[in-house]
Amino acid sequence: MTGTDHCGRKNQFYTLKTPTAEEAAMPKGMRHPWGDAVAGNGLIDRRALLGQGVAIAGALSTGVGASLTSAAAEPLKDDPWSLEPGSNIKPYELPSRFENNVARTLSNPDGLPFVQTARTPHHMLNGMITPNGLHFVVAYGGPPDIDPDKHRLVIHGLVKRPLMFTLEALARYPMVSRISFLECGGNSAPLFSPQPLQGNVQALHGLASCAEWSGVKLSTLLEETGIDSKAKWFIAEGADAPHLTRSVPVAKALDDAMIALYQNGERLAPSNGYPVRLLLPGYEGNMNVKYLRRIKLVEAPAMGFWETKTYTQLLPNGEAYQFYFLQEVKSFITQPSPGMTLKQPGLYQISGVAYSGTGRIAKVMVSADGGQSWAEAALQEPVLTKAFTRFRMAWHWNGGPAILQSRAWDEAGNFQPTRAEFVAHRGELKNVPPIGAYPNQHFNAVTSWAVDPKGQISHAYT
């Protein structure tokens, strides 16, 4: 299970060979009392659900509330909100007051002089798009208050014609849109801990989000400036106080890189780079430089502070990868997940997200017995390249212990390693620091949620 990283070094999880026969084998299944083929511990394979929608809906409603027969016989009650006028429409719509708990968690709410993070509440969301107000954020200097009329983007260096762009000038170029995930390189880093840290999916996997981005392809602007044949890299620089800079191969600029101006149809949020940011689909979050003001084409990477110290991948032998750009194939279950409780045995829906920096998700397998057996989940359309894909699986919980896992494959054949496989290659920390204090990055192994007989869910290792 070896491949090469961006510098030609051996890298166990960047390009993966075809799974072994044991890994790829589908569970033979067993007979469920309803007559549907299921995998071990109550998972119902997606193929067994075809044509079973009514039966599943009926099973979901069993034991919940009044029977459909008695409900249909009674007229609907007129609650107070059905008897009086509602409130005035607001200029900018906000969520219902009953959804106030759907919010990001902040690591540094007082804005003290160190990094601030905001984590997406995946366990409270559905679908594939993250609302702008819930998109994750990592900020080293706080969002600057940039006047868009005064902001400028310069492209210079090894180009034939250096150019400076205003936002008004950028808006004259052909616009494109794409749905793409962004993930901090440090997302899921708590799983490097030798013991499972007890946090919900927001705490463990909350530094990843997915949005529709609109703007101008970087390749379009480079057609305007022209590229010197010696240029192999470009350096992107932000306009905020830390002036974060990252080196990016020119090949990425000519592929799918975007100068993003809009997020989910509206101007970028201040904490996500207003008024202009770099979008590098599939690359680690910090390389998607916010508050973008400069692109300089050069012959070699800058080897600056951010790419030689802060964002490097440590290995057990003390060495580090020089560059590790891609966010590799990954998935995690969002519902049910830690912090939730299953109230009674019965049929539940397992749901989560999968994504890969190399392309589309091909399949997601789900286990309810810690990996002893697997069933294939249904993928919710659309399944897009380098974007969140929502997966769903019906599960009949019998009230006994269970361990829920998901494992994703992408269209290139890359798949998630187990935690044991990942740790054997990348190591783990010897102590247990707080959730937000992990130096390691790019954790993409299988995550396990343990369900106890009381229906309580916790983070576990298997």
Would you kindly provide a written description of the structure presented here, covering whatever features stand out?
- This protein has helices at residues 21-24, 53-61, 68-73, 167-170, 201-205, 218-225, 250-253, 305-310, 419-426, and strands at 3-4, 10-11, 30-31, 37-38, 43-44, 105-106, 116-119, 137-139, 153-157, 163-165, 176-183, 208-217, 233-238, 245-249, 258-263, 266-267, 277-279, 292-298, 313-314, 320-321, 330-335, 346-355, 361-367, 375-376, 378-379, 389-397, 402-410, 448-451, 457-460.
- The strands form 8 sheets. Strands 5, 21, 22, 25 and 26 form a 5-stranded antiparallel sheet that branches.
- The chain is globular, with a radius of gyration of 24 Å.
- The protein folds into 2 domains: 3-30 and 326-460, Sandwich (Immunoglobulin-like), CATH 2.60.40; 139-321, Alpha-Beta Complex (Sulfite Oxidase, Chain A, domain 2).
- By secondary structure, it is of the alpha+beta class.
- It is built from 9 helices and 29 strands.
- Residues 1-37 have low confidence and may be disordered.
- The two termini are 21 Å apart.
